[in-house]
Amino acid sequence: MLTATAIAALSALAIVTQDQTALRAAPRDSAPQQAQLWAGDSLEVRGEKGDFLQVYDHRRERAGYIKAPSVRVQSLQPAAAPDLLAVLRFLRDTPGSEALGIAYAAAYLKAAPAAAIDGEAFDALGAMAERLARRASGTQQGKAGPAVAAQLEVAAAYGVNMLSFERDGQLRLCYEGEAHRRVLALPATAPQKAAAALALTRHDCVAPDLAPVQRFAHDNWRAEILDRIDTSKLPAVLKNRLRLRKAGVWASLAYQRARRPELGAPAVQQAGQRALNELAGIDQGELMESDAYAYSDAAMRVGASRWATEAGAPAAKAQKVSVAASPGQPGETCVHLVDAKHDLKNPLLTRCTYGIVWTASAAPNPQGTALALAVQPLDTWRELWVFRRGPQGWSLDVVPPAADHPGLGYVEFAGWVPGGKQLLAAREARVAGRHKQSFELLRMSTLEVERRADRPNHLSSFYRWQSPAWKAITVSIR
Length: 478
Description:
Layout: H1 5-8, E1 12-16, E2 21-24, E3 33-37, E4 42-49, E5 52-57, E6 62-67, E7 71-75, H2 81-92, H3 98-111, H4 119-138, H5 144-157, E8 162-167, E9 170-175, H6 178-185, H7 190-200, H8 212-228, H9 236-258, H10 265-280, H11 292-304, E10 322-327, E11 333-338, E12 349-353, E13 356-364, E14 370-378, E15 381-390, E16 393-399, E17 409-417, E18 422-431, E19 434-443, E20 449-453, H12 460-465, H13 468-473
Helix pairs in contact: 2-3, 2-4, 3-4, 3-5, 4-5, 4-6, 4-7, 6-7, 7-9, 8-9, 9-10, 9-11, 10-11
């Protein structure tokens, strides 16, 4: 961690404090520029001439001269550690100075006696690395681009590594988290440990290309990290944030456990109920405006896996039509639509899927001409299957949470409107980076939306005919 050769070999160093500082071939402003330095670069001081310092840049393996006001010469002796820590505390919360702060963290960790190092320096280092990664992920074409790229190079020279993932056609950088792991392992305050756990368990920094076995192990590790945090000494705001993260992680685990029949239905139910309990435990009065995004995110994750609490429950038996499930090809589940005259061997309709089929969600209409079923192809995405009987027999249509590609969201059956020509649905999804929620009246013949509202009581049909069973289990009303 932070094992830059230049620091390890020196008892003092010069830290560059200004971006785009010139390293020149001679102690003159008119001398040729050897390199362009950035805030946070560390240099070995070899001499002084006028207003210039003679230095050596170990990272670029280049010697030269630099204006003295552009650097801060720092001792790496133990006596200098308190002063270095004071500067680090200031830079920790100074946006735009992440690389400089990382340089001071490296200097402090070199100067301070091993017994004096606790989680504070690593907490600051992790916070600055996270902020730099967010800046780099959000930087588009413009003047900030070269500066951010240079700061990433400076950070990498100190051993601060970033991981890159492509999501929705955009590159996202995430700090790999070594400093946060040190915070959890060293003596640190409860808020520092909570912040480290939250940083290590971010949903958007989970590699999207993990195999199912790796993802299951990673999410179990995330759940373990979060459960280690003692919340008794945390302020209400941090307790809320931990609950929001736990809700999302356990919702994912509910889905993954459902994909492993050997674990059994109780394990799936336990994970689903844990996710629901964490979401329900949020103290609304202490929920900050800045946490609104995370709250809707957690609610949609829990909503997608909501039927996990009913795992293993048989599909509701109706007099006219119901569903049954059986194994298909490896990894597949086949859904069979059956009635009194058509069993599994001779079903009305069969459709197979690699998603999780929540058979307990099956809801036939009173006429026996339609049935709604929840199917979850991804841990953050739940669709609504609608079986309908028409002149040509039975057919199946899939209603997704959004027209966009699968991401974060769910759509669920909310009730049948008398007459058999309409059904009610609740939909919640992240669309183009924004949270959208609606309560809808769908036309059965085409499954098009006839009417929608942002609240169920704003739509008369929804208010009158919503299913009591749906209202009892949904997280869309919160």
